[in-house]
Amino acid sequence: MKKILFCLAAFVAMLLTPAVHVFGSELNFAAKAQLPDNQVHKDVSYFDIKMDRGAKQTLHVDLRNDTDNEVEVDVGIASATTNINGVVEYSPNDIKPAKSLAFNLKDHVKAPSQIKIPAKGNTVLNLDVTMPDAALKGQMAGGITLKEHQTEDQANKEKGKGLSINNRFSYVIGLVLQQTTLPVAPELKLNTVKPSQVNYRNVISASLENITPTFINKVAIDANVRAKGAKKVLYRVKKEGMQLAPNTTFDFPIALAGKALEPGTYIAQLEVYGNQSSDGKVTRQINSAKQRYQNHWTLTKEFTITDHTAKNLNQKDVTLKSTNHWWVYALLAVVAILLIVVVLLMIVLLKRKHKKARNVNE
């Protein structure tokens, strides 16, 4: 009997276990950028190139394969973006280019979509770079992503085994292009504020845009949301240690701390600090400590949450599901109480009937 119960338990556990997610254990090739003479910073491993307007240049990446089989590598070129965590991404993704992005790196760098590295051998990936004819005051940033090619047969084979490769390891080599090394004063603007979701959880999404062709480093944001005309802060968030890529949007999420969205008109205010440094003239008070920054922006935007939007997002929020259907549990509780009452009444009536019948027989 114990053996049967153990087998049943193991079978149930197997059914409840999600598909295994495999993350590549190692790369079958190596990549290294050949830094040219016009490299601005010599002590980095990425390309940081200064070129004249309209100039053309071929950059080189050394590829090495130490395995016994030929390796085919997919090559991707992308302009730098900023994700919701305030982290710069250099690989292709679904983040839409900002309206202020005048020069998209992928339009100025040409490379083969795939390249083969012979077994136990080396090869060179050539990148043909063309600097815009127009003046570029600042930086154009992006990256070269190198990922081992996976055929359809390999992908299907992995799926057939119940495996899912979500993140194959890859090399990402940064590429920064500039015509001048003169610093550019950064500038931010707040485009929109609206209710949204991150991982099926309600947030207020504030879409910031770095409208200048320069990185904004060591960024901190103190944000709050209140109802229009009220002083009480409903939602508050503080975050630091972020970075914004040149000419990119940044959808900064303000979490609701498990609260449901309520329809109405609200005011979002963001205190944004950029380029933290010991000699910064702007002070940010955080608890009992003070931080110094070179830049500071106060950004405010009014926004509205409609009744339809609030209901729709609240229904999808996984943290609110237990409260979204409270009436179902209340109804079940009422039904359970009624059933108990009916059963008790039936027991009492049956006892009385039985007692009455016994008295008659006597």
Describe this structure in words.
The structure is a single chain. This protein has 362 residues and is α+β, with helices and mostly antiparallel strands. Helices cover 20% and strands 44% of the residues. It has five helices and 21 strands. The protein has a five-stranded mixed beta sheet, with no helix packed on it. It has a five-stranded antiparallel beta sheet with strand order 17-16-19-21-20. A four-stranded antiparallel beta sheet has the order 2-4-10-8, with no helix packed on it. A hairpin with a 5-residue loop joins strand 6 and strand 7. Residues 161-315 form the WxL Interacting Protein host binding domain. This is DUF916 and DUF3324 domain-containing protein.
